[in-house]
Amino acid sequence: MLVRQFSRRSYRAIFKWGDPKVFYEVKPAIRRFVTERLGVDAERLPGPVHPGLQEVSDLAGPRLPEGVCERLERIVGQDNVSTDVHDRLRFWTGATAVDALRLRLGRVQGTADAVVHPRSEQEIVEILALCQEQGLAVVPTGGRTTVTGALDPGRSGIALDLTRHLNRVLGISEADLTARVQPGILGPEYEEHLERRGFTCGHFPQSFEFATPGGWVAAKGAGQQSTYYGKAEDFLVALRCATPRGLLATRDFPRASIGPDLAGMIAGSEGSFGVITELTLRIWPRHPQVPFCFMFHCFDDGADFLRTLIQAGVGHPGVSRLSDGEETDAAFQLDGLAGTGADRWLRRLGYVPGQRALFIGASEGDRLTGAALAARAHALALRRGGLPLGSAPLRKWAKRRFHDPYLRDDLMDMGVVVDTLETAVPWSGLARLRRGVRAAIKSRPRTAALAHISHAYEHGANLYFIFMSPLAVGDELDDFQRYHGQIVDAIVEHGGSLSHHHGIGRLFASRLPAQIGEVGHGMIGALKRYLDPERIMNPGALGL
Question: What is the pTM assigned to this prediction?
């Protein structure tokens, strides 16, 4: 029943995660999971549910004022302006479950009026001047992996694609351990360039294959090894940003007391103030990892271990992922371990399915430091009933970590919607938050609620929730949006941040003022009014 071939001009070619030619292997274990946990018998379905195979056509045409398209072509060249209907929809669409559902159902909200591919910073400056004159929205785009509705402002405008031309590493300073990069280089190409020189970017989000440094900084993203390397705002050194007011360029000082952090004001702004045209980012020498993986009797024991390790002052791990009982069980099924001898052995030792919690960890940095951290981790884990598991769990997870998102589309073909929400909370509020959000997810029958910590700090951690539920046939979109909103409300009610690393976009914009306060939101609004007086830059993101 799975769709293996489809037109490159179809709706599916837009909403399918990642490479159109790559499909997740839907193992029998996954089908059993869907049947047993979610009550969806995929084998009995007559075919894929809302597969979105129809080609994109009959959408509203461009609404550009007369002569604007020709003026854009004079700036960037005729080959770098597209008004093709598929392009206009593709570059105006993100990667939320809502985006995917809308396209599967053929409910298009809007399209860009043109897709423009600038070749230089100066061209971006000229494009912004033209759009400000004409009152056209400008939405900077990279890999379009946003899961917060950060694209499509709901008005006439252009998508400014930064990946076609602005995709180079401009220089590396070995003395400073920094790299100058353009915003549109894809993660794998950037990392490959650094690897050849013996360095790493240290930033590996699950969207790594398709995301860009410009997007990392614009959304304050985090990677799967960010407990050591930090989030985007931590490895950002300096930037250049073209705004409707003019060009902002910050310096690469290691530290400076020269007023508020201007680069930090652009980080997390999601294209609301301008277009990032260049970045200076920290890099690190490459070192082998030292793995340390454990099974704990319960999530709370694992969380106490991780908190103590982070606060011990012996360094931070890179990978530090603690799964709750349901996610641990799902991993066992995904890896074909459920019911095996290893599973039975763990049960005999008292590590009970539904309660046991898997921790996957690995050091970064030089081998001696890594060995010391691993040794301390083992000592702390043993005190909390942790069972050492060697390096196998890390290897299994690393093998599939970038491919797991591909499963979303196959599950939707089976009539199952999958989405994620993430938050951050102090250690003292972690248990209450996890229980409250899990209860909100489980309030819906036949729903899986998986949760893990993947980023930890001295004073708190993030929680990342993955939830799966059968589609409500006939009311798929509205039903899912109501359910999603209930989970977000539970996160806020139980003391969590609206986002730890996905950003705000338009999905959480209405809730942002309550989270940061009227004065805080007013400050952001004042900066918006100064840098973007005509409100052309990604209007609606951050509620601006």
Answer: 0.95
CA atoms of 520 and 181, how far apart (whole Å):
31
Query: Which tokens hold the place of 454?
Result: 């993947």
For residue 439, the SS3 value is helix
Non-local CB neighbours of 278 within 8 Å, separated by 6+ positions: 121, 170, 180, 181, 182, 183, 239, 240
Token reading at 441? 């997810």
Beta-bridge partners for 320: 361
Q: How far apart are CA 362 and CA 370, in angstroms?
A: 8
For residue 101, how many C-alpha atoms fall within 13 Å in the half-sphere facing its CB?
A: 21
In the structure encoding, which two tokens stand for residue 51, read together? 């597969």
Contacts of 500 (CB under 8 A, 6+ apart): 222, 422, 423, 424, 455, 462, 464
CB distance 357 to 299 below 8 Å: yes
Alpha-carbon span 305 to 377, nearest angstrom: 8
Q: How many whole angstroms separate alpha carbon 464 and alpha carbon 249?
A: 34
d(CA 528, CA 537): 9
Q: Report how far residue 242's alpha carbon sits from residue 278's, in angstroms, rounded to the nearest whole number.
A: 10
538 vs 55, 156, 465, CA distance in Å?
Answer: 28, 11, 28
Give dist(CA 149, CA 416) in Å, integer: 21
Q: Answer whether 463's CB lies under 8 Å from 303's CB.
A: no
CA atoms within 13 A on the CB side of 128: 30
Q: Tens digit of pLDDT for each residue in 176-196? A: 999 999 999 999 999 999 999
Q: What is the pLDDT of residues 10-25, one digit of tens each?
A: 999 999 998 877 777 6
**DSSP H or E stretch at residue 305:** helix 299-311
* Beta carbons of 15 and 103 less than 8 angstroms apart: yes
**Going by C-beta distance under 8 Å and a sequence separation of 6 or more, which residues neighbour residue 91?**
112, 115, 141, 144, 151, 159, 161
What is the rounded CA–CA span in Å between residue 246 and residue 251?
A: 16
> pLDDT-based confidence at 432, cuts 50/70/90?
very high
Span 99-143, pLDDT tens digits = 999 999 999 989 999 999 999 999 999 999 999 999 999 999 999
Strands of the sheet with 81-82, listed across from one edge? 81-82, 114-116, 157-161, 137-141
Sheet order of strands, 236-243 included: 169-173, 178-181, 275-282, 236-243, 246-249
The four Cα atoms 321, 324, 325, 330 give a dihedral, to 10 degrees, of -60
> Which domains are delineated in the chain?
11-161 (3.30.43.10), 291-401 (3.30.70.3450)
